[in-house]
Design brief:
It contains 17 helices and nine strands. The strands form four sheets. The chain has a three-stranded antiparallel beta sheet with strand order 8-7-9, with helices on one face. The two termini are 38 Å apart. It is mainly α. A hairpin with a 4-residue loop joins strand 7 and strand 8.
Length: 359
């Protein structure tokens, strides 16, 4: 997350970029200005996909004479790379920059108000707070069009237990009311509250999915997740807020209605779930520990090193002993020593005479 000082520098860079494009467009309206910036980015979009990498984006800003401010240029890319994928939709970037779409990230006052909302959601709802709020919003949406008027939005927040000061409520409403008609798209609101997912977290989430997706098909059965998820590592269980049974029930309920009738969970659904969870976890290191322990992913360092993978005492033929972590212990029963030995041999441990539990 950018520091307050860097946030100010990025805000200044955004303002300068708007001013530059405004001049290049002949002081035209905002839609024309956004189209002008799109044209600059399109020139550097090598595969004409509508998305640009950081290098392509950086080249475009150099073309616009933004040099000597590389840290702010990089932070601006990071601000709008909401899913940490390393690419930007330049059409969406331009639309946000010129206020054609809700733009929480680019407005300091709105950022502050939405951050307060995010903190309350995390405090009240824990890891699944955003999803709980989404369900409440859906019940308020009588027309089914995923939009709420001012009162519906306000009462939806209140039903969740979120009473905003009128000033903050107005800022949040204005940010997501694209045409000033007093109606918000609550999917846009939830995306804004969710915030961005940085690359480190995205990579960890996809690493967890790959552990489950053993055949690389891009789909995982709901039962695979239930069998593999280590609920004891859920932060709400660790803190005592929930029992293991409560946390498991809540975790599995997140997939109800989000999957097809055959119980398949895609990479995108898995990533979306953890985007919501990520919003309630401030620290990147703690997020890494949570993911590694929940899905038995070996690695990490220091106090954030994985602690959930089984460690066993390996006795070698020459009598020497060592404690070894089973790096891939997913699905291995606690008394299945043959499977443990096979896993150890697969990871390169040699000359195993016998093993015993290290704990």
């Amino acid at each position: 997350m950018a520091s307050m000082g860097m946030d100010s520098k990025v805000d200044d860079l955004e303002a300068r970029l708007r001013t530059k494009v405004e001049s290049l467009s002949g002081f035209a309206d905002e839609e024309t200005q956004a189209a002008k910036l799109d044209a600059v980015f399109r020139h550097f979009d090598s595969d004409k996909s509508g998305f640009i990498s950081f290098d392509e984006y950086n080249a475009a800003l150099v073309r616009l004479n933004f040099v000597g401010v590389q840290a702010a240029v990089a932070a601006l890319f990071d601000r709008y790379d909401a899913d940490g994928s390393g690419v930007l939709s330049y059409g969406e970037f331009s639309a946000c920059l010129f206020n054609l779409k809700p733009n929480v990230a680019g407005n300091p006052e709105t950022r502050s108000a939405v951050e307060r909302v995010r903190r309350v959601i995390a405090e009240r709802g824990g890891l699944n707070g955003i999803r709980t709020l989404a369900r409440i919003m859906a019940t308020m949406d009588d027309s089914g069009n995923r939009k709420l008027d001012r009162d519906e939005f306000k009462y939806g927040l209140r039903d969740y237990g979120l009473e905003l000061p009128e000033k903050d409520f107005d800022k949040v409403l204005t940010a997501f009311d694209r045409n000033g008609d007093g109606v918000i798209d609550f999917d846009e609101f939830l995306r804004g509250v969710r915030g961005k997912l940085n690359k480190r977290r995205r990579d960890l989430i996809l690493m967890a999915y790959d552990v489950l997706d053993k055949d690389g098909s891009g789909i995982v059965d709901r039962r695979d997740i239930e069998a593999a998820y280590d609920v004891s590592q859920n932060p709400d269980v660790v803190s005592g807020k929930k029992t293991a049974d409560e946390a498991l029930t809540e975790f599995m309920s997140q997939w109800e209605g989000a999957t097809t009738t055959d119980g398949i969970i895609t990479r995108e659904e898995f990533l979306d779930y953890y985007k919501d969870v990520s919003a309630s976890v401030d620290d990147d290191d703690y997020f890494e520990l949570m993911i590694r322990n929940a899905w038995h992913i070996s690695g990490g360092s220091g106090q954030y090193e994985n602690t959930s993978n089984r460690r066993v005492l390996v006795v070698h033929s020459d009598g020497s002993q060592e404690v070894v972590e089973i790096k891939n212990d997913m699905g291995i029963d606690a008394d299945d020593t043959a499977a443990m030995v096979a896993a150890l041999e697969a990871q390169g441990v040699k000359d195993i005479k016998r093993i015993s539990l290290a704990d």
